[in-house]
């Protein structure tokens, strides 16, 4: 349904949606992933930055669309905002979607996407084999980086969930 609040998971064999209203993020261990649009969309570590954007998820005629939200907030606030106004935080399931998400935001911005950890899963609880980590930066610094970002090099990284970033929804 266009305009409904849902998570979308796309894998090689399935496409499915799940509602996420009323879920407390205090019940899960988060790992925010920031999406930053520059060049190669690999995942990497970034320092805790005071601002980031949102990349949100929407559906248009059964196709995933990424939307850049130019408003800084924490990962859980970004998730609530996206679920209320769009579908959810962006889920990136393959290189094609990675490129689409990259193109949805200004190249210098770092944004939240819907990945959290231990183990790393999407905020709807689903798994995906696609990853775009920059392993040299994925370190859970000070045991406080449990949310995922995509950085300006288009790599995924872990970051403190209370950092204020913009986001990308789809």
Automatic annotation (TrEMBL):
Superkingdom per UniProt: Eukaryota
Domain C-type lectin: 61-170
Transferase found in the keyword field: no
UniProt keyword list: Signal
Signal peptide: 1-17
Protein name as catalogued: C-type lectin domain-containing protein
Source organism of this protein record: Oryzias latipes (Japanese rice fish)
Source species taxonomy: Eukaryota, Metazoa, Chordata, Craniata, Vertebrata
